[in-house]
Amino acid sequence: MHRIAFALLLACSAPVAFAQAQKAPAPAYEPSVGQEGKDVVWVPTPQVLVDKMLDMAKVTTKDFLMDLGSGDGRTVITAAKRGVRALGVEYNPDMVELSRRNAEKEGVAKLATFVKADLFETDFSKATVITMFLLPDINLQLRPKILDLKPGTRIVSNTFTMGEWIADDTQNVEKGCGSSWCTALLWIVPAKTAGTWQTPHGELVLKQQFQMLAGTLRTGGKTLALKGKVRGDEVSFTAGGREYRGRMNGSQLELR
Ligand SMILES: C[S@@+](CC[C@H](N)C(=O)[O-])C[C@H]1O[C@@H](n2cnc3c(N)ncnc32)[C@H](O)[C@@H]1O
Q1: Is 95's C-beta closer than 6 angstroms to any atom of ligand 1?
Q2: How many Å apart are CA 183 and CA 157, to the nearest integer?
């Protein structure tokens, strides 16, 4: 009799147990360092370097930051904690979901958003700051698009360079960073200044390679060789031992 009752009890409780097993939440997605990505594997930027990258870009609440290949969302979330509106572009949908959960947990989901997209098909022309940890050849592929961004846009890369476009600033982090991925590079998109300009100081011929300027200034009956730099819209050069400064106002060079 007891055995029958026990069998009945077991038969009745089995569907409940099954239903409970069905309802158990799926284990949280755990990414693993080095996992495949579309064009680059996932390796997270050490948090101290994320902080350094944002410091170097001098982010403010007026900025709109985009992280190309945003991984677990750490750069976007850190920027959002500084009050910056930030968007992560990430191809792996699981990483996008993980980033959204991380942003929720950190209480910055309003400022830190994520999109599942291919960075090569993404319009980043609205960004005022771009962060990335990709690869040198990907940086090179993106370079023409980056050079067409609004002058003054800041680009910060973990470790990888932009070919012959030398960084405006390079900093290493030692404390709190492991043995690798501890270098941040900053570029400031230069205005396009090449050409011949009539200025109050004479005729100026500028040749530009990225942010570097060379050329001549015809002044006081002499043609002087010049060397200079463009930092966003700001132009500066030295000719005949004198320093000149100016700025690109749209397509016009205003030399002071
Ligand atoms: C080296 S991780 C950097 C992650 C994050 N930016 C960071 O610094 O911690 C590169 C990331 O780019 C993503 N990725 C690779 N190819 C991509 C593509 N074509 N479009 C968008 N994301 C991509 C990978 O899934 C990976 O999460």
Answers
A1: yes
A2: 8
